[in-house]
Each structure stands twice: as structure tokens, then as C-alpha cells.
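New to this. Explain the following:
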Amino acid sequence: MQTGMITTTAPITTSASTSTAKNALDKDGFLKLLVAQLQNQDPTGEGQDPNQMVQQLTSFSSLEQAQQTNSLLTGLQTQTAGLFQAQTAGLVGKTVKVDGSGFNLKAGAASMNIELGSAANVTLTVKDANGKVVATLPQGHLNRGLSAMAWDGKDAAGNALPDGPYKVEVSATGDDGKPATFRTSLSMKVDAVTFSNGGIYLASGGNVFSLSDVLEITA
């Protein structure tokens, strides 16, 4: 029976080593310097100030406690972030209302919400991804408060448009002829939760929203 043997070549090492000069005194360097000073000075000797010795010991103790506190805080921060991510993952499958405007057309249906500060005449201007106006939707006179607005996905000529996201510009004119205050929002079902660059984002139908944009969560 033949056997194979695997050989490895050890890297060649030399006794020479390189070091990088430091322009700043780091934490370890400070501790070594302080310990060396404490070991080589006699606080009872001539010209020595006992108060200075006490201050140095206090500084050493304070620095050590600060290091331990930083380590504990780092551990707590990591645990808190993990718990928060686990809780946020529970949003998958839930319906949320997010701050924003637009139509996410799917199977010839799309909707968005508008909350008016006062009664107003509202008109929606729908644009495609290239900024071209594809439809103008007069909503008529809407009362103060929350209203849902739907779109059948057809352009001005009655042609069905392809599914996808569409931008919406809102014009709201109050009964006094002045612009009315409003806020738009979208209701969506969360398909996925992603964590990126320290932020948390919700995905739904190709759209992505920051968790900070969520206004309401329902079952």
C-alpha cells in the first residue's frame, strides 16, 4: 500500500524585528511610565511631595476603573444591539405606515395616504422613473384628516402602465386659496428587515425604507 506524505515548509524567520515609532503616548505607555515612576521614587525622601504621590496613585486607580467601565459599556452595547435586531426582525409580515409619497403599482392597483391640516382641493401628479408625467389625478375636495388615495395604474389615455414604483407630486389648495399643509404616507407589508452601515431598513415590494420613517405598526 502506498501512502502519501504531505510536507510543509516552515517560513524562514530572522531575529531582526522592526518597530514603528509612536508620536503619541497611548494607554499602555502611560501605565508603564506611571508604574516605573512609582517604583523608582521614594515619597519620604528629601524634596519629594507626599501629596503628589497620592495624586499619582489616585490617577492610576481612576484610569484602571475607567478601562473596566469602558469594557462593560462595550459589552452592554453589543448585547443591546443584538436584542434590538432580534425584536426588529419580528416586523416581517406586519403592515406598517411609513413617511413618504409615491405609488408602488402592482397588478393594476396602488394607493397612498394623505393627512390634511385643513380641508383642501387635492390633485396628484404621477411621474415615471424618468420624471415623465404619466397621469394627473384630481382627488376633489377632501376634508381635514387622513384620506386614502387609489390609482388603477392607467395613464391619461387609459393605457395600463407596467408595475413598479411611481413618483407622486401633491398639490393641496385650501378653501382660502392658500396652500394647505399635508403629510403623505404609505401603507406596506414588510417583506424583509436588513441591517446595513449601522442602520435598520424595511423592504417591501422592491421599496426600502429606514426604520426611522415608520409612523405606525399594525398586525
Residues 1-20 have pLDDT under 50 and may be disordered. Residues 50-88 form the longest helix (39 residues). The helical segments are 27-39, 50-88.
